[in-house]
């Protein structure tokens, strides 16, 4: 899952979209018009499930794979030697390291072992009735040191060929994400990864290998997953790899929360556009595929109904979704970002504007939840950070009442209406691009004391998907150009800084018993919904 611990989650479009807001999170059954199932969507609408390499693959140090920044982050950040072996592990004889930024002190070294179980997992996906599988390629499994000049890993090429071929043999469409946050440690060490403009060249060479090796079968490419999450959590709050932030923001030894997120985001956009240009010029005509990007947002609603309060969600949205989608659609960052951030916000050259503008064939959109937004009562003048530059406060409560039904994550409340409002906002504001909901889901707590039979009863997840799909079908009827929906996630997996403390899957992974897979009740619901 992509959107973990986002500190800025806010978007509303009150001037264009009429918000008939309710505080209800789960849609009562009586509101569904029978039958509500696969036939409620266009015949060419794609239903699938999603994943990411570091979260599911495992085999982190085998098969020729090089280290990524997430390997380093989960093992060695911060570099504090401790004596409590219950909270740490010996790495290559170098001593014990506390992994205090991961909730359960775990790593993705094994994850859920998709590397060895991909055939059976794809078989389960087919059994549920899904039509597509979104997965990411580990950059360092293809290029162990991040650069073509330092060698291509044939074992990595073989593995992804096997996954793609297995999907196609089962009648499933591969949607491939080229970058899901796992920057090779080699280029992070060499020049700072996405802190440097040098990365556009290395990223371009990496995706060139992928297009060449897999593009004859892959027809849906996603350049980046959630550049917002990567920039903000990795460089403003320091909660994600590479764990950089200002000392006044969090527990980081290096970083600048006021400048680095903007530099990284700028370089991500240029890397994305470089990949799109390469694909369109060199491969698209013969391979006949499409290429896009996956962005993330919560839907945000006004907390107060004053003029400033009503304007807060839209202004905040500029810092959130517009940060990336404005340059892609219009060629530059939102004016409100220029006003608030000033010289800390990089500028596009005329050539870069031309490169970035129009650089998607489709838009991937990740949506999980909704929050309230309101103007900050006191705007910071010192200790600046991307997380406060929007001058917006966010909350899940209003008048002591939650915005929706709570889940196992403090930021994720169930609010299906938000996906409808977001789709209509994209229709109005961003020229109604073809959209795939590339992630959508909710978390349960990983309660190891629950009997297996009880752990498989995820009725709340069924209600989550039922409500969101109902509102998504309504958005399509209202003219939103939505082409598909991917559940996050098919398997329980390694959830970044949450480790294994939460479960998003419609398939249960038994961490105590050899990683065995069991369908949850939601998987059977999906099977029935898809009329399989």
Commentary on this structure:
With 532 residues, the protein is an alpha/beta fold. The chain has a single domain, classed as Glycosidases (TIM Barrel, Alpha-Beta Barrel). The chain contains 19 helices and 21 strands. An eight-stranded parallel beta barrel has the order 1-4-5-6-7-9-16-18, surrounded by four helices. A three-stranded mixed β-sheet has the order 8-10-11. Strand 2 and strand 3 form a beta hairpin. It is globular, with a radius of gyration of 22 Å.
* Gross geometry: globular
Please tell me the CATH architecture by its name: Alpha-Beta Barrel
Total beta strand runs = 21
Strand fraction equals: 15-25%
Number of separate domains: 1
Terminal Cα span: 26 Å
Radius of gyration: 22 Å
Characterize the quaternary organization of these chains. Answer: single chain
CATH topology: TIM Barrel
What is the assigned CATH homologous superfamily? Glycosidases
How would you write the strand order of the largest sheet? Answer: 1-4-5-6-7-9-16-18
Helix and strand content put the structural class at alpha/beta
Range of helix content: 25-40%
| Uncertain segments | 2-33, 78-99
CATH classification, class level: Alpha Beta
Mean pLDDT: 90
Pfam family, one: Glyco_hydro_1
GO molecular function: beta-glucosidase activity
Active site: 439 (nucleophile)
Signal peptide: 1-24
């Amino acid at each position: 899952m992509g959107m973990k611990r986002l500190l800025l989650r806010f978007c509303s479009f009150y001037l264009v979209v009429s918000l008939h807001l309710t505080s209800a999170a789960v849609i009562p059954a009586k509101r569904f018009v029978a039958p509500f199932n696969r036939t409620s969507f266009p015949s060419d609408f794609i239903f699938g499930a999603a994943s990411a390499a570091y979260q599911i693959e495992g085999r982190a140090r085998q098969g020729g794979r090089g280290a990524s920044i997430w390997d380093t982050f989960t093992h060695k950040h911060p570099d504090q030697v401790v004596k409590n072996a219950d909270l740490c592990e010996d790495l290559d004889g170098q001593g014990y390291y506390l992994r205090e930024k991961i909730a359960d002190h775990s790593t993705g070294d094994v994850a859920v072992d998709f590397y060895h179980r991909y055939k059976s997992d794809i078989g389960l996906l087919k059994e549920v009735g899904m039509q597509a599988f979104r997965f990411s390629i580990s950059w360092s499994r293809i290029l162990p040191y991040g650069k073509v000049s330092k060698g291509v890993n044939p074992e990595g090429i073989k593995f992804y060929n096997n996954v793609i071929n297995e999907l196609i043999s089962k009648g499933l469409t591969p949607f491939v994400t080229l970058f899901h946050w796992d920057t090779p440690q080699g280029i992070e060490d060499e020049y700072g990864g996405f802190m440097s403009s040098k990365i556009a060249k290395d990223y371009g060479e990496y995706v060139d290998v992928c297009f060449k090796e897999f593009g004859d079968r892959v027809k849906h490419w996603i350049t980046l997953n959630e550049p917002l999450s990567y920039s903000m959590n990795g460089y403003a709050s320091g909660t994600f790899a590479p764990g950089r932030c200002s000392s006044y923001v969090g527990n980081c030894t290096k970083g600048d929360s006021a400048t680095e997120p903007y530099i990284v985001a700028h370089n991500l956009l240029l890397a994305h556009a470089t990949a799109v240009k390469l694909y369109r010029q060199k491969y698209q005509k013969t391979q006949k595929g499409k290429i896009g990007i996956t962005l993330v947002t919560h839907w945000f609603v006004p907390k107060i109904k004053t003029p400033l309060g009503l304007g807060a969600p839209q202004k905040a949205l500029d810092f959130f979704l517009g940060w990336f989608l404005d340059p892609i659609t219009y060629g530059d960052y939102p004016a409100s970002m220029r006003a608030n951030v000033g010289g800390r916000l990089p500028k596009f050259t005329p050539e870069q504007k031309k490169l970035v503008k129009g650089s998607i064939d489709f838009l991937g959109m990740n949506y999980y939840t909704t929050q309230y937004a309101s103007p900050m009562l006191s705007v910071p003048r010192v200790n600046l950070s991307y997380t406060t530059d929007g001058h917006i406060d966010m909350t899940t409560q209003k008048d002591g009442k939650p915005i929706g039904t709570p889940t196992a994550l403090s930021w994720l409340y169930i609010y299906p209406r938000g996906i409808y409002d977001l789709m209509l906002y994209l229709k109005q504001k961003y020229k109604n691009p073809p959209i795939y909901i590339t992630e959508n889901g909710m978390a349960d707590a990983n309660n190891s004391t629950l009997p297996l039979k009880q752990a498989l009863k995820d009725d709340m997840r069924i209600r989550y998907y039922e409500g969101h799909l109902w509102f998504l079908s309504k958005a399509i009827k209202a003219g939103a150009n939505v082409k598909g929906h991917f559940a996050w996630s098919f398997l329980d997996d390694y959830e970044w800084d949450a480790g294994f403390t939460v479960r998003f899957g419609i398939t249960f992974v038994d961490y105590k018993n050899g990683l065995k897979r069991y369908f949850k009740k939601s998987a059977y619901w999906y099977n029935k919904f898809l009329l399989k």
